[in-house]
Amino acid sequence: MNDQSHATVTVRFFARLREQLDTDSVAVPISEPATVADVLKTLADRGSVWAELCADSRVMIAVNQAMAKTTTPLKPRDEVAFFPPVTGG
Amino acid sequence: MNDQSHATVTVRFFARLREQLDTDSVAVPISEPATVADVLKTLADRGSVWAELCADSRVMIAVNQAMAKTTTPLKPRDEVAFFPPVTGG
Amino acid sequence: MVIIQAADFDLAEEYQKLRNSGNGTGAIATFTGLVRDHGDLDDVTGLFLEHYPGMTEQVIEGLITEAGKRWDVRAARVIHRIGSLALGDQIVFVGVCSAHRGDAFAACQFIMDALKTSAPFWKKELSRSGDHWVEQKDSDRTQSEQWHKRQE
Amino acid sequence: MVIIQAADFDLAEEYQKLRNSGNGTGAIATFTGLVRDHGDLDDVTGLFLEHYPGMTEQVIEGLITEAGKRWDVRAARVIHRIGSLALGDQIVFVGVCSAHRGDAFAACQFIMDALKTSAPFWKKELSRSGDHWVEQKDSDRTQSEQWHKRQE
To answer: Quick check: do B and A touch, 3+ CB pairs under 8 A?
Structure first.
């Protein structure tokens, strides 16, 4: 393991997104200064369904379990989450 | 009992009014057309605490167990009630 | 359903009845009022609740009917206690079952607010220094008037 | 107090806890949401509730804190169920104990409305013709935005 391998964030997916991507989390490398938008771009580069979901403006974002935006800054080991509009209650 | 004795309404008092008047109901003669205002006048003529309570604009009025006003018309055997602003709940 | 009684009531039982009569609807709002441990007087030891039998039930049934015209109301239950109550006792219950969350809240609060200014109940505070009829609060009148304004 | 659990909950127990922690206050408002017997699909047989463990609790605790800044809140309890639910099952409980009736209603409704749009839960409707993620309703978004407007 080199230093670079630590510069990642964990990205979690929930509900419909988790099912469509067929995964509940991936590690995404970041180079600081980084924002959620950078992570979305990296994921979109995987193409097909990834590109589609990353372009969906209804997708909600959380960073370290608090609501966030595409402009929210990220540091290594942050937990990012993408999920559809919530439907509890 | 003559016919005239039937031309009365029952007047009920509750809570503070009942205590201040020291009675929970009286029969008041009416001659039609009559309204609640006529009953209030008859009672006020008794003087002292009766006059005082009948002049109190905060006193609430019910006729046949529905909220009413001084202008509400009355017929014999109606049930009139006077009481303080309600404080339930 | 309106019940005036001296006995205490059981929220769980009332809730279950609302749930049963709502069958298949999604939202139940309840309100329970308790006798406060402080009142107009500092040394209050309890309350005595007087009411106008017959009229009380009619007025509250009327409020439930009005609520049913303004909102989706599948079932509504009101219980109001009378007689002697201790500090902390349950005094009033209002429960509404509706297909919609907002309607359940609105109808429940409307019935409760309107009951405070139109149902013939009177509270007497019992205290070591003597008894005392409670005066109606301006805030209760205002809160009830809000509902008329909203309707206009 | 926020509890996320698969198990059912008991309204009476929650109410008693609110009543105990409010000690001496006068008003308890509760809301209970039930799984409706009809949904986006006609042949719905049940629901599956997914959530984001950890974040869910934080978001709802935040809503309780916000409610406490805006209204008199002596105690608040929220329970949300996850996993498999049948039609008619209890799904969510919000209870608020306050010194004031209006505050109890407002805080309870605020927490419930805001939970609908900000707590990370997702409903999947299970039906004989296949499963289906529920879409967020515009009305829920609107109802939650009302509270922000009222604050301005």
So the answer is: no
Tens-place pLDDT, residues B6-56: 699 999 999 999 999 999 999 999 998 999 999 999 999 998 899 988 888
Number of structural domains (chain C) is 1
Residue C104 forms contact with B (CB below 8 Å): no
DSSP secondary structure of C78-138: EEEE-EEEETT-EEEEEEEEESSHHHHHHHHHHHHHHHHHHS-EEEEEEETTEEEEPPPPH
C107 touches B at CB < 8 Å: no
Length of chain D measured in residues: 152
B87 closest CB neighbour out of C33, C54, C134: C134
Q: Please name the residue of chain D whose CA is at the shortest distance from the CA of residue C12.
A: D12
Helix and strand numbers, DSSP H then E, in chain B: 3, 7
Indicate the pTM of the whole model: 0.92
Q: Which two tokens stand for residue A22?
A: 């067929």
What is the per-residue pLDDT for D25?
80
- What's the domain range around D123? 2-151
B85 touches chain C (CB under 8 A): yes
Topology at the third CATH level for domain B4-83: Ubiquitin-like (UB roll) (3.10.20)
Tell me the CATH number at C133: 3.90.1170.40
The complex scores an ipTM of 0.91
D50 and D122 in contact (C-beta within 8 Å)? yes
Q: Collapsing DSSP states into helix, strand and coil, what is residue B6?
A: helix
D74 neighbors D17 (Cβ within 8 angstroms)? no
pLDDT in tens, chain D (152 residues): 999 999 999 999 999 999 998 777 889 999 999 998 765 557 888 999 999 999 999 999 999 999 999 999 999 999 999 999 999 999 999 999 999 999 999 999 999 999 999 999 999 999 888 899 998 888 888 888 888 777 65
> Rounded to a whole number, what is the distance in Å from the CA of A89 to chain D's nearest CA?
5
**Cβ within 8 Å, pair C24-D87:** yes
Whether residue C9 lies within 8 A of chain B, CB to CB, comes out as no
| Contacting residues of C for D134, CB less than 8 Å apart | none
Hey, of C2, C4, C93, C122, which one would you mutate to test binding to chain B, going by the most B CBs within 10 A of its CB? Answer: C122
Q: What is the pLDDT of residues C64-102, one digit of tens each?
A: 999 999 999 999 999 999 999 999 999 999 999 999 999
Q: Does the distance separating the beta carbons of C88 and D24 come in below 8 Å? A: yes
Domain spans of chain A?
4-83
List residues bridging with A10 in a β-sheet: A27, A79
